[in-house]
C-alpha cells in the first residue's frame, strides 16, 4: 500500500504541468519529515506548531510559529509520538496531545479534521465553479484542456470508471474521489453525482493534498487506486 501511495504522490507532482497556463500547484516548498528525515512538499506533510504554549495540529498552516512536519502516514506519526516531536519543542510547551494513543488520535481527531476540511474545499470549489459538477461541464473543460483532475464517486459504475480513467490517461490528468454518489449529492444540494472535474487553482491544490493525506492515513479506496489497478486491456473506449 505505501509504495502505491508514494507512486500516487509522485504522479500528482509529475502531472502538475499538464494543464493550460501557469500551474499554481507547481510552486512547491520542501520540508523535512521529523520522523524519516525525507524531504517533501510541505503541503503533502502534516504540520504541527505551538500556539499559546500548546502543541497542536496546524490543519491550515496558519499558526505563526515554527512548524514541525511529519509524513501523512501512520508509521512516521508513530515514530514522532514516541518522543521525537516532544524533544523537538521547548520543555515549557504543553504536549498533551502526545499522551493520547496514536491510533485513537489519528482516527478520532486528525482524520476527522482532514475530512471536515476536505468537504469544505469540495463545497467551496463547487460554489466558485473551480469544481465542475455537471458531466457536460466536465467534458467541455476536458476538450478545452482546462481540466486538472477528474473526481469519480467511489460507487460509480464500472463503465463510468473505465471511460474516465481512459480519458484521464489520454489527457495526462489524475482521477480522485473519496465520496459516494449520494454523499456528493447531499454535499452539493443536488442529486447523486458520479463524475466531477477540477479546474486549476488554489482550491484544487488544497483538495489534491487533502485527498492524498486521507488516502494514506485511512486506506480508503479511491478512484486513484482503481486507476492504478486497472490494466489497459480492461478499458472501454468512449
Overall geometric form: elongated
* Unreliable parts: 1-22, 232-238
Q: What is the straight-line distance between the termini?
A: 31 Å
From the alpha carbons, calculate the radius of gyration and give it in angstroms: 19 Å
Count the helices. How many? 8
Judged by helices, strands and strand pairing, the structural class is alpha+beta
What does this structure look like?
- There is one protein chain.
- The chain is an alpha+beta fold.
- The chain folds into two domains: 136 residues, Ribosomal protein L30/S12 (60s Ribosomal Protein L30, Chain: A), CATH 3.30.1330.30; 82 residues, YlxR-like (Hypothetical Cytosolic Protein, Chain: A, 2-Layer Sandwich), CATH 3.30.1230.10.
- It is built from eight helices and nine strands.
- The strands form three sheets. A four-stranded mixed beta sheet has the order 6-9-7-8, sandwiched between helices. Strands 4-3-5 form a three-stranded antiparallel beta sheet, covered by helices on one side. The chain has a two-stranded antiparallel sheet with strand order 1-2.
- Helix 5 links the parallel strand 7 and strand 8.
- Helix 1 runs antiparallel to helix 7 and helix 3 runs antiparallel to helix 7.
